[in-house]
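Translate structure to sequence.
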């Protein structure tokens, strides 16, 4: 799993692998899913309700004692809030994953692009993101 997958999973949650069916019981599509994620494809089902990204992040802030992290606009603070490595190397890897073509030098341009792209990708994967987080 890549860096974006870690971000997505930290916000949306990630189900453990589906349990093996009990002998003599029928399996169905519902048995292949847990927590909204498909154990087969690793993708969220299309019909699932959107995840309120800001609400999840506010809960994480509260659980940490409300540190002064600006996750709404900073990729570094967003990664710190999610207990992910926010080093330049990690952000460079995230930039590679998401298709950033500029210099991977930790510039404001790169970091702004990363935050915007992560927010776009979270929306594509079923996240509801407030306008204030879209830069």
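Result:
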């Amino acid at each position: 799993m890549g860096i974006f997958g870690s971000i997505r999973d930290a916000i949306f949650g990630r189900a453990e692998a589906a349990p093996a069916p009990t002998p003599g019981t029928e399996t169905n599509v519902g048995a292949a899913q847990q927590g909204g994620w498909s154990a087969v494809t690793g993708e969220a089902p299309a019909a699932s309700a959107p995840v309120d990204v800001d609400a999840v992040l506010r809960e994480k802030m509260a659980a940490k004692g409300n540190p002064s992290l600006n996750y709404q606009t900073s990729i570094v603070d967003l990664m710190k809030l999610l207990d992910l490595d926010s080093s330049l190397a990690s952000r460079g890897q995230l930039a590679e994953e998401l298709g950033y073509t500029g210099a991977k030098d930790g510039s404001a341009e790169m970091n702004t692009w990363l935050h915007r792209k992560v927010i776009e990708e979270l929306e594509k994967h079923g996240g509801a993101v407030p306008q204030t987080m879209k830069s």
